[in-house]
């Protein structure tokens, strides 16, 4: 009998506990306190934004827009600047079809990326497979 090891799927990635995915952000009511997590794909600090930073996080279901006010940036500066993967807790804000999370707490969870690499299937390797 041959034992088959299941290949990791997109849902197997190391999701931090109690986080909503991007696709679930329409479920909570306006101003609900929620937590999201994802890879940082964009950081913007426009000169006209008076110290506000805009982050875009991406998870396996889509993108999450995060607004970091100056006071929160000063408190969580290291995570905002250096984090490759963040967990953000804050208030949900909707403006039409646009959804933002107003950051209240930001945590750098980049070490979880090592778990992603450890579970990645060998077929993602750029080197040709022989055998």
From TrEMBL:
Residue ranges spanning the membrane: these are: none
CDD domains for this protein: DnaE_OBF
- Offer an example of a GO molecular function term for this protein: nucleic acid binding
The record ties this protein, via Pfam families, to: tRNA_anti-codon
- Signal sequence interval, chain numbering: none
OB domain residues are: 34-109
What is the name listed in the Swiss-Prot or TrEMBL entry for this protein? Answer: Error-prone DNA polymerase
Q: What organism is listed for this UniProt entry?
A: Marivita geojedonensis
